[in-house]
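Let's sit down with a protein and look at its sequence and fold side by side. Once you have written the record down, we can walk along the chain together.
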Amino acid sequence: MALPRILVLVLAGGAGGRLELLTEQRAKPAVPFAGVYRLVDFPLSNCQHSGIADVWVSVQYHPTSLSDHLANGRPWDLDRTTGGMMVLPPFQGTERGGWVTGTANLLWRQADLIREHDPDALVVVSSDAVYELDYREVVDAHLGSGAEVTMVTTQVEADDASRYGIVEVDGERVTGYAYKPGEPATTTATNEVFVFTPGATLDRLDALEDELGEEGLEDLGSHLLPAQTRDGLARAHPLEGYWRDVGTVPAYWEAHRDFLAAEPPIDLDDPAWPLHTRGGRHSAARVLDDGRIENSLLSGGTRVSGDVRGSVLSPGVVVERGASVVDSVLLPGVRVRAGARVERAVLDDRVDVGEGAVVGGDGDITLVGRAARLEAGTEIAAGARHPDPED
């Protein structure tokens, strides 16, 4: 029996505004994670390990920040003569061309291309979460269910549930769906992985567009998923393992804390399921002089002469003698000069912290934007944003 024809659509075009300064000059899927990786590496690696070769990546905001990293799909074995990776930018020239205003809107705009490809299952995944999942396993269960959509679900904290699409479930059947509800009925959330029956879903989107107009289609949770749920054609597929949405600065910081544990929730070097990424060109990390490291992740090219505790250092980070970095995430090329202190902070690419400067402290997460230069003795308070977006 032939394997089903699966098409994966990776959503990499959102503005990512909840990550604030981290997405001012890069697409959200291009945000670094755990030192050497990018967020988009998670869905692309899942595709490779699931044995899926047809992967389309939808881009829109800051697409050049992704182009070099994607490398035609080579790191994930997607650089193929037939099939493989295809990047979908916004387009003009047909009646469905234009700027994408949500995922349902995107599917409607690309409907002709999807129909031409003629997949048995369409898998739609976001690029702002950390998890492992065999998409083919979800597809196999979907194809035998008679459902029009399978929503992969996870459990979230009650006080955070209003950020997600929330479902009510009877067995496998989804009996209720609410998109970012003010008063969530459950803590069972969709984790932004959906398997659709392509023909029926695209026909439904055409009908919704006739009723609402192309701008009214918006996100999947606005009209499409509620309609499929009302018609009894939605099912749930629970994800039992680790999943964390890192679409906000606090969640991004907390996810790094998870991976500093003695036994991290996902082994990124697991021989059976390694996380693949575009290779770097950095030498080995070096701990120099009086450098001290405690419970931290060091990437290639880092140079540490100071004190680093509970932190993640991306490639090329330098911590000079007498400087301290505590409970922080430093993205590529950051330099913390002698005597400076960084605590509970996220520092974007190439931030230069001057001698004796103080960034953050005991409180909310501090965020410093790309290439900021902090003069000697500067103090950035806990929870601040620098530069201040209000200025």
The chain has a mean pLDDT of 94. The chain has eight helices and 31 strands.
